[in-house]
Write a structure and sequence with these properties.
The chain is an alpha/beta fold and 856 residues long. The chain has 31 helices and 27 strands. It has four domains: 64 residues, no CATH class; 312 residues, Rossmann fold (3-Layer(aba) Sandwich), CATH 3.40.50; 282 residues, Glycogen Phosphorylase B (Rossmann fold, 3-Layer(aba) Sandwich); 113 residues, Immunoglobulin-like (Sandwich), CATH 2.60.40. Strands 1, 2, 5, 6, 7, 8, 9, 10, 13 and 14 form a ten-stranded mixed beta sheet that branches. A hairpin with a 2-residue loop joins strand 6 and strand 7. Helix 2 runs antiparallel to helix 6 and helix 8 packs across helix 30. The radius of gyration is 29 Å and the shape is globular.
């Protein structure tokens, strides 16, 4: 029966905080508290049970705790002293001079807009699904710590990502509870009259109103766009309902809101961003909107606006397989952009080409990664291996270029250590390294001090964290069983699962099939023997979600759950439902070994292993993602040697056996090798070596520092140069590009001459010269170089380096002589070839024009 109420009036009643505690509200609404453990302890101290009940959300805590309890803590001198300490530290954090201010004082006008479809900041803000979002959240936190002038842009989801539970058969089910924005550390942006600040976005044939929510994270802000506005049509209100939910029609609408709506929102907020960072291709439509605005506001042509926009755009790809890229059918693109491409002065074919689509081909689609790649000055993968894989994936976009030269670099991901490191390890690090290790942990020499930590203390710490994880797992398992009305016997058994002194292996991540969560279960009899060893037992804790449409992933979860229910396994294997940041925090802190088994090279990075490592948890992984560059035998274990196989079933067989061997021969004996004091000294030494190797490198402070120096500042400087004199440099550049493209075919290599010697030694130089027919170009239009590398086969070279050849003379007939010297730096068998590329000082990347001439 429908409600008889046509209109429901709402009342929002806030808690009455005692005057002494009023600043608690400011602390609760700034997410800096979520990586300030003293602040977390302060909120927990108010009411521990309510803190747990409200899922560690301080805004909800202050709304639900009793008024009597607030009055009570306001008279508690111990609490007030704690509160004053937290507030003072928070004020100091917001006001003190930052790393960026000290290092780049001459770049005061830099402002980075960081766009991402999801942000994983804390479990009380369920607007993330997994690694991509948590990486984005950690990026913002590190930017705050370093003082990077950055603002985040994302979407506000009414229901976020799904919450997971398992039915009695172990099959994953999904539910979508609605986020109660009033009880979240988030605020609606309002205009000077107190009304919600509104943006209007054209989506296809209709106007959609956007509201903007603001999240404070220390020194920076995150803005989330929301279509759930009363004046919008019902279908438009649902655009931002679910993260990665709905069909392709909803997906393209979300990406229009994020990319184009994000640019509109920044303007409405008065934020003048100078560099735009696309975290994955979901936000790539922003590049089109920036071009359109430059055309209107600066009276630039499309070509001029494209070069100006591209100069200040950064794209990070997280996807190592083509199937993971967002693509939209040409029908959908027609539906939503039919009127848009005319605003850019393009026809349908030209517009679709920006996304690598060809309207003449019926199976063609608009590729968001190609759009971002073609309209960015800096592009990177998220590990060295992923950068290499990405260069292979997208080589066709750069015609005539060697794979190793494709302009897709790599900045390996990191994790925000203050958000993930346990209190126990933090106290040890404070003592050994000083209290500021959290803010700038990229000094390798400084981290050598972890060698001073005693093995006894380290082992005791690991024992405490494992015990805490066991207790947490038992409670969570009981909650899971209660929710599906399990028997009293099952609830009793759940109280005794796992053991606090047993080697504990964790596996938690998205249950995509390539991650091979079932690899460990390939030989169940052998696994059961390993787990049930009476002298050296092992236990497993699993967590993770399969995509709602991924039945093979759900089947893997079901297989694990069923095996865990067997009598011998019931106390040795646990599956924790509804994997989120809170569950992850317990797992990466409490396990002894972090297991990762992706099929190489499908793991772009794998930050969960980093989170475990910075807690002293040893990694056992295939050589994929970050582990391919971080691994050495002194800090963990590698499954295989980085091989790839055509027969995937054979690969799984080989690598599962290798995993069992590593467990039986290396991991288990090392863990249980104890001295007379029951201290696993060699295990502890391995942990110390790992902390020393991992902490200075695989953290977001290093990562954001690298983005700043390699991407943000160069893009900012290039854009500032191009906009001088009313964008005259970009106009000159565009005219030059037009000339080059029109006349490139008139250029040719006539001959190449080099000294020939069979007795070259290290230190020698080989003189080389080439004569070019310049056609309608001049020497300053080109760069002539020798591409040199180790010989690999008859016509291939590797480890490319380039040696420029200098212009010497012109014979008067349009033929130019270029000369150079090739140095013999190391011994070996080398090959080189002469090539010609276009050159202009304001061109972002010479290779982007796809114009390369190799000697015939």
């Amino acid at each position: 029966m429908e409600s008889p109420m046509n209109r429901l009036h709402t009342l929002r009643v806030r808690p009455t905080l005692p005057e002494k505690l009023e600043n608690l509200r400011a602390i609760a609404h700034d997410l800096h508290w979520c990586w300030n453990h003293d602040a977390i302890d302060l909120f927990r101290r108010i009411d521990q049970e309510v803190w747990k009940k409200c899922e560690h959300n301080p805004v909800r805590l202050l709304a639900e705790v009793s008024q009597e309890r607030l009055e009570e803590v306001a008279q508690d001198d111990g609490f007030l002293s704690h509160f004053e300490r937290v507030w003072t530290r928070f004020e100091q954090y917001c006001k003190e001079r930052t790393w960026y201010q000290s290092t780049f004082a001459d770049h005061k006008n830099l402002k980075i807009a960081y766009f991402s479809a999801e942000f994983g900041i804390h479990e009380c803000l369920p607007i993330y699904s997994g690694g991509l979002g948590i990486l984005a959240g950690d990026h913002l936190k590190a930017a705050s710590d370093l003082g990077i002038p950055l603002v985040g842009v994302g979407l506000s989801y009414q229901r976020g990502y799904f919450r997971q539970y398992l039915n009695a058969d172990g099959w994953q089910q999904e539910r979508y509870p609605e986020n109660e924005m009033f009880f979240m550390p988030i605020s609606l942006v309002r205009d000077k009259n107190g009304e919600p600040l509104e943006c209007t976005l054209r989506i296809g044939w209709r106007d959609v109103i956007l509201h903007i929510w603001k999240i404070k994270l220390g020194r920076i802000d995150l803005y989330l766009l929301d279509t759930n506005v009363m004046n919008n049509a019902p279908e438009d209100r649902k655009i931002t309902e679910n993260l990665y939910g709905g069909n392709q029609d909803v997906r393209i609408q979300q990406e229009i809101v994020l990319g184009i709506g994000g640019i509109i929102a920044l303007e409405k907020l008065g934020i003048k961003a100078t560099v735009f960072h696309m975290n994955e291709g979901h936000s790539a439509f922003l590049a089109l909107e920036r071009i359109r605005r430059l055309m209107v506001e600066e009276q630039l042509t499309f070509e001029e606006a494209r070069e100006a926009a591209r100069a200040s755009q950064v794209f990070t790809t997280h996807t190592p397989v083509p199937a993971g890229i967002d693509r939209f059918s040409l029908d959908l693109m027609d539906k939503y952009f039919k009127n848009y491409w005319t605003l850019l002065g393009l026809d349908r074919t030209q517009f679709f080409a920006l996304g690598g689509a060809d309207p003449k081909k019926s199976d063609s689609s608009f590729n968001m990664a190609i759009l971002a790649l073609q309209l960015s000055a800096f592009t990177n993968g998220v590990s060295r291996l992923h950068g290499e894989v990405s260069r292979g994936m997208w080589q066709s976009l750069w015609r005539g270029c060697l794979k190793s030269e494709i302009p897709i670099g790599s900045i390996t991901n990191g994790v925000h250590a203050p958000s993930w490191v346990s209190d126990e390890l933090r106290m040890i690090l404070d003592r050994e390294l000083g209290p500021r290790w959290e803010e700038s942990p990229f000094s390798r020499e400084h981290w050598s001090r972890v060698r001073n930590i005693s093995s006894e203390e380290l082992c005791r710490m690991r024992d405490r964290l494992r015990a805490r994880l066991v207790i947490y797992s038992r409670r969570r398992l009981q909650q899971q069983l209660k929710q599906r009305d399990a028997s009293v016997v099952a609830l009793e058994r759940a109280r005794d699962v796992l053991d606090m002194n047993t080697l504990t292996i964790g596996f938690a991540r998205r249950f995509a099939t390539y991650k091979r969560a079932a690899l460990l279960f390939r030989d169940k009899q052998r696994l059961a023997s390993i787990l049930s060893n009476p002298k050296k037992p092992v236990q497993l804790i699993f967590a993770g979600k399969a995509h709602p449409q991924d039945d093979p992933g759900k089947q893997i979860i079901r297989e694990i759950v069923h095996f865990a229910r067997e009598d011998e396994m019931r106390s040795r294997i646990v599956f924790l439902e509804d994997y989120d940041i809170h569950v992850a925090r317990h797992l990466v802190q409490g396990c002894d070994v972090w297991l990762n088994t992706p099929r190489r090279p499908h793991e772009a990075s794998g930050t969960s292993g980093m989170k475990a490592a910075v807690n002293g948890v040893l990694n056992c992984s295939t050589l994929d993602g970050w582990w391919a560059e971080a691994y050495n035998p002194e800090i963990g274990w590698a499954i295989g040697q980085g091989e790839t196989y055509d027969d995937l079933d054979y690969q799984d067989q080989i690598e599962s056996e290798a995993l069992y061997d590593i467990l039986e021969d290396e991991i288990i004996p090392l863990f249980y090798k104890r001295d007379r004091l029951n201290v696993a000294r060699e295990w502890a030494e391995t942990i110390k070596k790992m902390l020393e190797a991992i902490f200075p490198v695989y953290v977001t402070t290093r990562m954001v520092d690298e983005y700043t120096k390699k991407a943000y500042l160069p893009c900012y400087n290039r854009m500032q140069r191009l906009r001088e004199d009313n964008y005259q440099p970009v106009k000159n550049l565009t005219q030059w590009i037009e000339k080059i493209q029109k006349n490139w075919e008139t250029l040719s290599i006539l001959n190449v001459h080099a000294e020939r010697s069979q007795n070259l030694r290290v230190g020698d130089q080989v003189a080389v010269e080439t004569t070019l027919k310049l056609g309608n170009l001049v020497p300053s239009d080109i760069r002539v170089e020798a591409a040199l590398g180790q010989l690999a086969g008859d016509r291939d070279i590797t480890d490319i380096s380039t040696i420029p050849l200098s212009y010497e003379s012109n014979d008067g007939d349009g033929n130019a002589l270029f000369k150079g010297q090739i140095p013999c730096i190391t011994t070996g068998h080398f090959g080189y070839a002469i090539r010609v590329l276009p050159f202009h000082k304001d061109l972002s990347r010479s290779l982007d024009l796809g114009l390369v001439i190799w000697e015939p």
